[in-house]
Amino acid sequence: MMTKTEAIVLHTLKYGEARVIIDMYTRTHGRLSFAAQMPKTSRGRLKKQLFQPMTLLSIESDVRPRLQLQRLRSAAIAVPLPSLQTHPAKLSITLFLAEFLYHALKGEQQNEPLFDYVASSLQWLDGASGTVANFHLVFLMRVARFLGFSPNLDGYTPGCFFDLRSSVFCRQPPAHRDLLLPQEAEKVQLMMRMDYPTMHLFRMTRHDRQRLLDIALTYYHIHLPAFPELHSLAVLQELWE
């Protein structure tokens, strides 16, 4: 079925001399993989510059559900995001988010609210002129809502533990080791209070920010069993010394 849709580039892999395999998250079909022939001249409809991580595209494809690799007929920039490729901090965040979503969205079906959240987040990051040091923390915890395992903040009171498996606060520690002690459990509700416009108000040291990131990734490891270690994490950790 010939389909026109918006898509977010997650990962590109060179295959042979002139072909690439592109993993994207699309607005109408969820996660799809595409095979594309890269032209040797500038006259071709597909250009490799289009497929940088987290680029927002408008694509046309013949989508056939039983095929592992869809045929990509055309692609064009849907919304330019120039600073994500030129601003060092934003570029590092972008590469981290692309790798994170590449693994977190495997098998993810159509979810238009999720697509719209990711797309609007990228546009916000591109237009941001102030500090973006907490952006990835806000993004990670907000995306969990769309994947069905957002932390439940209703039962929080000072001194609670946080059960990472059940995603709830509790007065007594659970009978397993996937928990946060009260001091760190408090940080979960701190993270969930942040949003993009107000995140600059939450002053944190590099150590605090790194610990919150570790907690968020541990949370994803628990709820997405096949979720791997992220290679781009080392680069992100070097930011904001």
The CATH topology assignment of the largest domain is de novo design (two linked rop proteins)
Q: In total, how many domains does the architecture comprise?
A: 2
| Mean pLDDT over all positions | 90
The CATH H-level superfamily of the largest domain is: Recombination protein O, C-terminal domain
- Residues in helix, %: 25-40%
Assembly classification: single chain
Largest sheet entry = 5 strands, mixed, barrel
Question: How many angstroms separate the termini?
Answer: 50 Å
Order of helices and strands: EEEEEHHHHEEEHHH
Which structural class best describes the helix and strand composition?
alpha+beta
E-strand count: 8
Low-confidence stretches: none
Can you walk me through this structure?
The strands form two sheets. This protein has a five-stranded mixed barrel. By secondary structure, the chain is of the alpha+beta class. The model has no long low-confidence stretch (mean pLDDT 90). The chain has two domains: 2-79, OB fold (Dihydrolipoamide Acetyltransferase, E2P) (Beta Barrel); 83-237, Up-down Bundle (de novo design (two linked rop proteins)), CATH 1.20.1440.120. It is built from seven helices and eight strands, in the order βββββααααβββααα. Helix 3 runs antiparallel to helix 4 and helix 4 (135-147) packs parallel to helix 6.
